[in-house]
Design brief:
The chain has ten helices and no strands. The chain is mostly helical and 207 residues long.
């Protein structure tokens, strides 16, 4: 199996229910990928068809996911670069690590026609898109905001800064290049450049 399947890191996200069998979960996720590679639209993928392709019962899928929306989110999540392990050396370094994961995700989406198609189909499915935001986007955003709050607490960032707005100012340029300008350059060093440019005027001023 090529494309999206080859890009999947060896990870699982046991967020719900009983302990999972990694091999069974993997077979289910790969069944979804196989169907997508065969051109089956996301909207036409049923739990019955996925179970038949994976060689498992529907109950096996429902023990692991509440519905196909959560399953689709896990398919996308396992295809993306994993969330970064934060260096913990400074607010700046942690922000760069998060932004670099976003840059790598943008590069991967550009290089995979299937992943690009899946994201496009997700956006046209409100339930899937909402599930992706709830399970992936919102937790990531909270981690980024927590980094900024730690920066305020340890003196790396002015305390009068709105951290939610600042997070948007940092993430926004990368999202603009990866989503709104799909042909824009995503060179190495871009993450550092964005973070340093935004933080330049926001460090506390010594009295």
């Amino acid at each position: 199996m090529s494309g999206l399947a080859e890009s999947q890191p060896k990870q699982t996200s046991a967020l719900r229910g009983r302990p999972r069998s990694e091999a069974v979960e993997r077979s289910i996720i790969e069944a979804v990928i196989a169907l997508l590679e065969d051109g089956v639209p996301l909207a036409e993928l049923s739990i019955e068809r996925i179970a038949r392709t994976a060689g498992v019962g529907k109950a096996t899928i429902y023990r692991r996911w509440n519905g196909k929306e959560e399953l689709f989110v896990d398919v996308v999540r396992t295809s993306e670069p994993p969330d970064p392990e934060l260096p913990g050396t400074s607010m700046r370094d942690d922000l760069v690590a998060f932004l670099e994961q976003l840059r790598q995700r943008g590069l991967m989406t550009r290089s995979s026609a299937l992943l690009h198609s899946v994201f496009a189909q997700m956006k046209s499915s409100p339930k899937v898109w909402d599930a992706y935001h709830t399970l992936v986007v919102t937790p990531r955003r909270q981690k980024q905001i927590d980094i900024l709050r730690r920066g305020q607490a340890n003196g790396e960032l002015r305390t009068d800064v709105d951290v939610e707005l600042l997070n948007d100012l940092i993430v926004g340029p990368m999202l603009f290049r990866t989503i709104m300008q799909p042909n824009a350059a995503l060179p190495e060093g871009l993450s550092e450049q964005i973070v340093d440019s935004v933080l330049e005027g926001l460090r506390p001023v010594s009295s």
